[in-house]
Each structure stands twice: as structure tokens, then as C-alpha cells.
Write a structure and sequence with these properties.
Mean pLDDT: 93
Shape: elongated
Number of helices: 10
Strand order of the largest sheet: 3-4-5-6-9-10-11-12-13-14
CATH class of the largest domain: Alpha Beta
Helix content: 25-40%
CATH topology of the largest domain: TIM Barrel
CATH architecture of the largest domain: Alpha-Beta Barrel
Number of strands: 14
Length: 348
């Protein structure tokens, strides 16, 4: 990589247009380059077959591609694939392919930051230090990599993308939205917004910004406790973004966008699984249409929480379902390779 050149994928389409015109090439060449980059995922200029040689040379002298590559791949007994991905600067992140063949659902779980700053007590990533944000192309590359794996392993492309890997997406707001733009565009991966979910621990002002920006993707709140007292104990962010503020922000988001909202709720034995806990959660579901995903706790080193029994999880889900709440119990996937929810941490 030439340190005197720029990463071409950091350019907007308008910036690329201007560069092409400034270099005295026909403007339509910009459209060809853009398609090679974002739709065909080409990461070298020589491979852009319909460009003239002098344009390829000009591009090579001004730009490079900051590529991401698989550093290590692990395959779970349940078919889940975890990738440790190496970025251009040597940073490591993790992305996961989660197949549920019985539902014809194949999901990429992607990271938005190298590490995390939010120190949620049940999350392995939260025990890492935040190193930096990912740029849009680095997020996009994860989707491309996992999509190719899905086609190779299961003979079909991804059906869904969730921003639930390492990091807090709303603390990397601009790059996350830019990556979704490229994933969604026809000159890109062409995946519908309805297939994309962004998960946040809950930053009220940024949820409102999503609404004001009229995003079209789905939103998930990592809730995990429905009282401030309990949530403060496990998620320090709640002290500055309490449940009242989050409820107001989510109501605003729904009123402005009508997009799907879900609550992610890890079931911790003896902590957030009582009838009273269900009652508090039920009250929150009355404020706007919401689906509740109850998640099995996935153990991490140095944490004293205990996984709930199958019966305990199902009883809690039944309390909500009997009151008309849409509830899904999400079974752990990739547990044997530390690829399950809350376990991504570059363990090695």
C-alpha cells in the first residue's frame, strides 16, 4: 500500500466524479469505477476490464484499496462460522455467519468498532478497550466476506444482516449509515432495508437522530433489564440514558419511521427472570409496537452470571406472550467457538 495514495472507497460518488473530470476523462467512467468497487467488489484497478489503461494507471497513482481479509475461520458444530478479520492496519475484528436452515434464514452479524467502550458486564467485547471506529468499507467488506461464505457453504446468499458484533453502532453513526447505503443500493449489494437490523445499547439522542434522518432499517435495543436499578448494574450506559429517556426516543423513532423495533433480553438466572421483571418489561412493550427476543446467556470468562434453564426461559416468554406480546426465544448459535451473542472478543 502506497502511503501517498488515498483509499478510493472513502470517496463519495461526487468526489469520484470530480476527480475523473479533473483528470480529463469522460465523466461516465466514474459510474463504471463505482460499479466495479461497490457492486462487483473489485479491489484492484487492473481487474476493471472496461477501463482504458491510462485511466487504470491514473487511479493506481492516486488511490489504493484498504482491504480486509480473513485471519482465522472457525466452524461450529451447528454450522455457524466465525471469522477473525484482519484490517489494513493489523486491527482484528470478528464477524459471524449464522445459518438457520429450517427457517431459510442466513444472517451476517457484523462489527462496527474495533473493541468497545461501553463495558456491559455480561459482554466479552465490553472487556476490551475501544481502539477505533470502522470505516464504511470495512463494515461492507465483512458483509461481502460472509455473503461469499454463505454462497459457498449453503448455496445461497445472505437473507439478513445484523449490526450486533463488536462495538456500538450508534457511536460510529456516519460510517454505519454509509455502509448500509452501500449494502442497500442497486449499485452495491442490493439488500432491502427490511433485512437489516442495527442493535444499540441505547443512546437516546442518537436514536432520535435516526428518526430525524428517516432511516428505513430495523432497530433493536439491547435492553436486558426493564428497571433502571437492575439495568444500571449491568449496563453503565443506562446511568446517562435511562429507560424513560430511551422509551421517549424509541416512541419518537417509531412515530417518525414506523420501522420495526425489537428488545433484546438476555435471560440471567435469578437476576431478570421473575414475574415482576416480566411485568416491568410488559409495561415497556405497551408504549409502541415491539417484538421481544429472549436470548440465552452465553458464558464468558470472569463473569458470574448463570444461564437460565430452558424451562425458566420458556416460562418468562409465556408470561409475555399470554399478554399479547410477540416473543421469540433465540437459541445460542456457535457457542462452542465463542461466536454466540456477547462472546466476540478476539479471544486469542
Amino acid at each position: 500500500m502506497n502511503s501517498d495514495t488515498r483509499d478510493i472507497r472513502k470517496l463519495s460518488k461526487e468526489e469520484l466524479d470530480a476527480f475523473i473530470v479533473d483528470m480529463s476523462f469522460d465523466k461516465y467512467r466514474s459510474n463504471q469505477i463505482w460499479e466495479w468497487i461497490w457492486k462487483k467488489q473489485k479491489t484492484d484497478f487492473d481487474g476493471m476490464k472496461n477501463l482504458p489503461k491510462n485511466l487504470k494507471e491514473t487511479l493506481s497513482s492516486h488511490f489504493h484499496f484498504a482491504e480486509a481479509s480473513i485471519d482465522k475461520k472457525q466452524i461450529s458444530i451447528d454450522g455457524t462460522i466465525k471469522n477473525r478479520i484482519k484490517l489494513y492496519d493489523g486491527s482484528l475484528i470478528e464477524s459471524v455467519l449464522i445459518p438457520v436452515e429450517s427457517q431459510n434464514r442466513f444472517t451476517a452479524c457484523v462489527s462496527s468498532q474495533v473493541g468497545c467502550s461501553l463495558t456491559c458486564s455480561f459482554c466479552a467485547t465490553g472487556k476490551m478497550k475501544l481502539q477505533r471506529n470502522l470505516d464504511a468499507a470495512e463494515i461492507y467488506d465483512q458483509v461481502v466476506i460472509v455473503n461469499e461464505q454463505c454462497k459457498e457453504q449453503y448455496g445461497r446468499p445472505l437473507t439478513n444482516i445484523v449490526y450486533m458484533g463488536m462495538g456500538e453502532p450508534l457511536l460510529n453513526y456516519k460510517n454505519v449509515l454509509k455502509s448500509i447505503y452501500h449494502i442497500n443500493q442497486e449499485v452495491g449489494l442490493g439488500m432491502s432495508h427490511r433485512r437489516i437490523t442495527v442493535s444499540t445499547v441505547g443512546i437516546a439522542k442518537m436514536i432520535k437522530k435516526l428518526a430525524d434522518d428517516e432511516v428505513k432499517f430495523n432497530l433493536a435495543l439491547s435492553l436486558h433489564a426493564a428497571t433502571d436499578e437492575k439495568r444500571n448494574k449491568i449496563m453503565p450506559i443506562n446511568e446517562s440514558n435511562n429507560l424513560k429517556a430511551l422509551s421517549e426516543a424509541l416512541s419518537y423513532f417509531y412515530q417518525k419511521t414506523k420501522n420495526k423495533i425489537s428488545f433484546e433480553y438476555i435471560s440471567f438466572k435469578g437476576f431478570n427472570d421473575t414475574t415482576e421483571d416480566a411485568y416491568h418489561l410488559l409495561k415497556m412493550t405497551r408504549l409502541f409496537p415491539v417484538k421481544v427476543n429472549i436470548i440465552e446467556y452465553n458464558p464468558i470468562d470472569g463473569v458470574n452470571f448463570e444461564r437460565n434453564s430452558t424451562e425458566g426461559v420458556e416460562n418468562f416468554a409465556r408470561l409475555l406472550s399470554n399478554e399479547g406480546v410477540t416473543v421469540t426465544v433465540r437459541k445460542s448459535r456457535g457457542l462452542d467457538i465463542d461466536a454466540a451473542c456477547g462472546q466476540l472478543a478476539n479471544k486469542e
